[in-house]
Amino acid sequence: MSDTRDVTQTQGRGAVDFASQFHKIVSNIEVVIRGKTEVVERALVCLIAEGHLLVEDVPGVGKTSLAKALATSIECSFGRLQFTPDVLPTDGTGVNIWNRSSGEFEFQPGPVFANIVLGDEINRASPKTQAALLESMEERQVTIDGVSHQLGRPFMVVATQNPIEHEGTYPLPESQLDRFLMRIDRKSTRLNSSHTDISRMPSSA
């Protein structure tokens, strides 16, 4: 009976510690993103659940600031991919480059090797480039020239797309939308970004 009580008490303390740390990180992010606690909490829950987030809204409402603030608050690396139709899959995943000094190919990792990756306007990328990113999201690894490279942990993609401008875009099919754990639409993403320098944000640790 005492063992059961000890386990229950330990679990209770763990839950309290988790909640305290969770709210501490949320408060830290809100130094930059103000007035959108629910959106910040959803993004953090998505990260903890090892999922990926799709945000649909017009440019200039703070989506980049949200991703950067999240990475800074948990002391993780941040990478960004600005998608356009001419972006190649290797622009995100990385590429092998010939090193004349060593006489060997060396792998140069792309932005997807960051912990928090912002895929800005993913629906402007070609289907082939979209597929390369979505594959890394699913398998948490990148394969270049037959060699697999594991991505770091944590790993989360925050992808954005503009739901209004459709000219020159490639909508994500439903099968690929399933790669995202959460989808936040423009009704809930009016993020008020302050002018705080994110590089000066205190870490939550």
Task: Describe this structure in a few short sentences.
The chain is α/β, with parallel strands linked by helices and 205 residues long.
Features of the shown structure:
single chain, 205 residues, alpha/beta, 5-stranded parallel sheet, two-stranded antiparallel ribbon, 6 helices, 11 strands
Explain the overall architecture.
It is a single chain. Strand 7 (141-144) and strand 8 (147-150) form a beta hairpin. The protein has a five-stranded parallel β-sheet, covered by helices on one side. It has a two-stranded antiparallel sheet with strand order 1-11. Strands 4-5 form a two-stranded antiparallel sheet. The protein has six helices and eleven strands. It is α/β, with parallel strands linked by helices. It has helices at residues 2-29, 37-48, 63-73, 89-93, 127-139, 174-177; strands spanning 33-34, 53-56, 78-82, 94-99, 104-109, 116-120, 141-144, 147-150, 156-161, 182-184, 192-193.
Sheet with the most strands: spatial strand order: 3-6-9-2-10
Overall pLDDT confidence: 83
Strand content is 15-25%
User: What gyration radius follows from the Cα positions, in whole Å?
Assistant: 19 Å
Helix-strand pattern = HEHEHEHEEEHEEEHEE
Q: Pick out the low-confidence regions.
A: 192-201
Total number of strands:
11
Q: Percent helix among the residues? A: 25-40%
Structural class: alpha/beta
By DSSP (H or I, 4+ residues per run), the number of helices equals 6
Distance between the termini: 36 Å
What's the shape? globular
Largest sheet: 5 strands, parallel
